[in-house]
Specification:
four-stranded antiparallel β-sheet; 15% strand
Length: 385
């Protein structure tokens, strides 16, 4: 009963919020200053730039820190949007491995990649499970390279009581579909290090994205949020829902007024939404503990996950269940993606952890629109693995 109460109160993406954001847009109410202020406070940033997507924010981060042709260290298992950002920013990439049981960087692998020579380091939080930023920042400082913290999937995770996304020299956020806090589309670039100049200059000649398109995406995300509803379109192959599809990054734009207005309404509910996800994860963890054929992903020491999704490693064949919202993770390490080849620096670094994640990881939904019935069905699915 306690879980059911949390599920019903934590609803940041609602029809009312979408309608309110639409009215704000029509009335030309500019919410950008309030949104930037809220993000600066949440992530201890000195400057915030709002962009049309998290990928655009990453392109700007790369441009702010390194010159074209420079080498950047990136995780070997992550969203393919990292590749599109690298290509748009014209940088080369060295990949380091991940620990499949924590989704955090394999520090031995990261140390070797840093020793080979890079101009910057990008580290990503995956599915709400925070990377070990204390260890990462220590290694980066020793190597003398700046850090881009990709917190697109931070989901209100914490490390040592501090918000994931508040450690790197630059932080990238995303507010797209499935990111916990959404504005339809949109992202943000946050600056923390005093050695980096003003990042606002990076978008001074940019145009704004389309409000109508962003609000339409938000409405579709709300309508398809329930696993029972999502299962129908997900079963249609032509729609490619839930699949990893590569898209070339466009030139970064500013966040649309509509997305900004919606983000202004959804940001205050992000911690309540995280509490609901954690409550759901407790039930799913109890169910997964009863299976002998899977391994749970666990937080690094001193961290608390925001459970954007509930990830498990299957010991047998990969199984998903679209009607329950259960999906496999990214299907390939970034090293195996065709689009990565033109910017990948040849290396003998073993990437066994990334390959294991590609072969064995599945994730379950935890968000506020998951019902007690959904949780019961997913628990049964876990127990049967």
């Amino acid at each position: 009963m306690h879980i059911r109460r949390q599920l019903t109160v934590a609803s940041p993406l609602t029809a009312a919020n979408i309608a309110g954001a639409t009215m704000d847009t029509i009335a030309r109410r500019d919410r950008s200053e309030q949104v930037r202020g809220a993000l600066a406070t949440e992530f201890s940033a000195r400057e915030v730039v709002l962009t049309d997507s998290g990928t655009s924010a990453l392109v700007l981060a790369l441009r702010a820190l390194v010159k074209p042709g420079a080498v950047v260290a990136m995780p070997a298992y992550a969203c393919v949007d990292l590749i599109s950002a690298a290509r748009r920013a014209n940088v080369r990439v060295r990949l380091f491995d991940l620990d499949p049981l924590t989704l955090s960087p394999d520090m031995d692998s990261l140390q070797r990649v840093l020793a080979e020579g890079v101009s910057a380091l990008l580290v990503a939080h995956l599915y709400g499970f925070p990377a070990d930023m204390t260890a990462v920042m220590g290694a980066a400082r020793e190597a003398g390279v700046p850090v881009i913290e990709d917190a697109a999937q931070h989901a209100c995770a914490t490390i040592g009581g501090k918000s994931a996304g508040s450690f790197g020299d630059l932080t990238v956020l995303s507010f797209g579909r499935g990111k916990g806090t959404t504005s339809g589309r949109g992202g943000a670039l946050l600056a923390r290090s005093p050695s980096i100049g003003s990042i606002s200059m990076l978008t001074r000649n940019s145009t704004s994205a389309s409000s109508a398109k962003d609000l339409a995406i938000a409405k579709a995300s709300w309508m398809l949020g329930r696993p029972s509803i999502y299962g129908l379109p997900a079963s249609i192959p032509a729609l490619h829902l839930g699949e990893t599809v590569y898209h070339e990054a466009g030139e970064p734009q500013r966040m649309s007024p509509g997305a900004t207005a919606l983000l202004h309404r959804t940001l205050p509910g992000m911690h309540a939404a995280a509490a609901a996800r954690r409550a759901n994860a407790v039930v799913l963890r109890d169910a997964s503990d009863q299976s002998r054929h899977l391994s749970e992903v666990r937080e690094v020491e001193g961290a608390e996950s925001g459970y954007l999704r509930f990830p498990v490693l299957l010991r047998g064949d990969i199984h998903d269940a679209p009607t329950l919202g259960i999906a496999r993770g990214y299907p390939r390490p970034l090293s195996a993606e065709p689009e990565m080849q033109q910017c990948l620096v040849a290396s003998d670094e073993p990437l066994h952890g990334a390959l294991k994640l590609a072969n064995r990881l599945v994730t379950l939904p935890t968000h506020h629109m998951v019902t007690p019935s959904d949780i019961a069905n997913m628990s049964k699915w876990l127990q049967q693995r």
